């Protein structure tokens, strides 16, 4: 705690993203990319080639810090996001994951029955397992030396539950969704354990230097609206209420049907995927929150002139109180030039009001 | 042609679904399930166990007819849908698919460049490859003997293009989506070839006895709204305009953002996934079309009392001009009792107006 207190005393030079999250005026919108620390960067690929696998990178604080900072150096983005994975939470609770090359995550053991849920540790006890994450944040924070804010993150409870039940990605997530209909009480017990762990984990991340937090509800879009209100939103709400130290972003992918309720959460920013028109989103969310997003990640495959044109058009459509990002994580085979064109287009944009 | 002319002279006894599609009054809504001919039925599993694989079933007309009729016998649904696959179209055009057990479709050869598109056959020439499908329809039609209408189907052009580019399912469909940004002209050429083939194919299906057609745009929901308007809707529109012989349903999964444009198509019915509130859908689509859907397929895992309650609640929410279905294909491990409970609940429902 004392070390983080020292760390956080370094003034942040480029605090655009924090200002926008808090509702302060800025001359241009800040920009970063989900998955910016990753395969799009040659530096990342070079480092990754020397390692045994993805988890070695996640679990070695000095290396995680190194790849966290790479996009700040290479792309000049306005925020760093700690290199990690949302699946460290199920692992800390007792379900180890593997990251299978070209296939994604795999859990050898999944939740099958109540006894499996009872066996999971949770809250501060589980969060204490993740010291390598906190250490990575501390190193990153020190090496960033206040250049840009550092974002910490976690998966939203419904998304984490999905992985714990399915054991891997799925087209239908029918095992996880089945539980909500057949054993709603058990589902709530598990969601509460995940929530308690996530809150303890995020508080430790903040203590270790995170200047901002993002919750990823990656599988929000698979649920019917009513189930999203019952099994997903109440736990996101608990996390929003518990995390008051730094600005918080909630990104519930494809949950267009829940946007009004998301807009009422006690958080600063709502992340948007690439399906929703920014002006419609603003109308639904209201004026009190920042909006983050939402360029189609595939646009970055396009010719530079089109990337510039579409990025500018998006900026105009959002207006102010906008944190620029894609509508999803950048795809690993995206050309670096396309990414740079996107970042540069945003950073050379100026709000009309700023000119007057 | 003469044989189908004979076939179609058998009067259909239960024509509820055709009436609703055409906007005629009925006493209760008709019900069927996407993927009703499949693993949920013990009869299907018994037959399938004797065969070399999925494609043997699709390509053997007498067997395809047998499994098409199984759910009419076992569940008493108000329509049969021909047992087939949307991927017969790419195959007829020149790209063979395999169906890999527990993994789904796989194309050994995919579209990589313009020459690959040029090499594809299309239109009537391609549709002529699919005589086994037309034969299956003729046998089914004969064996159904007018009990219920027979639905024919095809994938919408964007979804078919996705498979031709990706070669398999994908979380992001980024190869297919990349083409739209990097080679829009080539994408349009390919979409037109698929459309021409699909129209010729559907006309042959109708000639062979299909009483109704459904277009499945399974990957509609991955596109940004603007791209859906540019690369998906114009081809669906061509198909709607070309198919005037029988009622047509368009099911664009997860394309909430395109619902207004879908509602303006020259078709009879709009299929809905389980995310959209029926009353909101009716408001957007307007009064001129039937709506089909949209129970969460996972609800059929729930206890019977809950299936009944939620099914009734959905029926009330839709009101009339409703073809009852799930919001997606029924999942293979769904308990047969749950499916029967759903079908029975709908069939014992009566519109309030019918009582007066």
Order of helices and strands of chain A: HHHHHEHEEHHHEHHHEHEHEHEHEHH
What ranges of chain A have pLDDT less than 50 throughout 5 or more consecutive residues? Answer: 1-7
What gyration radius of chain A follows from the Cα positions, in whole Å? 19 Å
The percentage helix of chain A is: 40-55%
Cα distance, first to last residue of chain A?
Answer: 44 Å
Name of the CATH architecture of chain A: Alpha-Beta Barrel
Sheet with most strands of chain A: 7 strands, parallel
The CATH class designation of chain A is Alpha Beta
Give the strand content of chain A. Answer: 5-15%
- Helix/strand class of chain A: alpha/beta
> From the structure provided, what is the oligomeric state, counting identical versus distinct chains?
homodimer
**Spatial order of strands in the largest sheet of chain A:** 1-4-5-6-7-8-9
CATH-derived topology of chain A: TIM Barrel
Count of DSSP E strands of chain A? 9
Mind explaining what this structure looks like?
Two copies of one chain form a homodimer. With 356 residues, chain A is an alpha/beta fold. The first copy, chain A, has a single domain (2-355), classed as TIM Barrel (Alpha-Beta Barrel), CATH 3.20.20.210. Chain A is 50% helix and 11% strand. Chain A is built from 18 helices and nine strands. The first copy, chain A, has helices at residues 2-7, 16-22, 42-49, 54-59, 61-75, 88-93, 114-119, 123-127, 131-144, 157-166, 174-182, 184-207, 225-242, 259-262, 278-285, 304-318, 336-347, 352-355, and strands spanning 80-81, 98-100, 104-106, 150-155, 212-217, 248-252, 269-271, 290-295, 322-326. In chain A, the strands form two sheets. A seven-stranded parallel beta sheet of chain A has the order 1-4-5-6-7-8-9, sandwiched between helices. Chain A has a two-stranded antiparallel ribbon with strand order 2-3. In chain A, α10 packs across α11 (174-182), α10 (157-166) packs across α12 and α11 packs across α12. The longest helix of chain A is centred in the middle third of the chain and has 24 residues, at 184-207. Residues 1-7 of chain A have low confidence and may be disordered. Chain A binds chain B through residues 104, 169, 171-172, 174, 177-178, 180-182, 221, 224-225, 227, 254, 256-257, 274-277, 296-299, 301-303, 306, 328, 331, 333, and chain B through 104, 169, 171-172, 174, 177-178, 180-182, 221, 224-225, 227, 254, 256-257, 274-277, 296-299, 301-303, 306, 328, 331, 333.
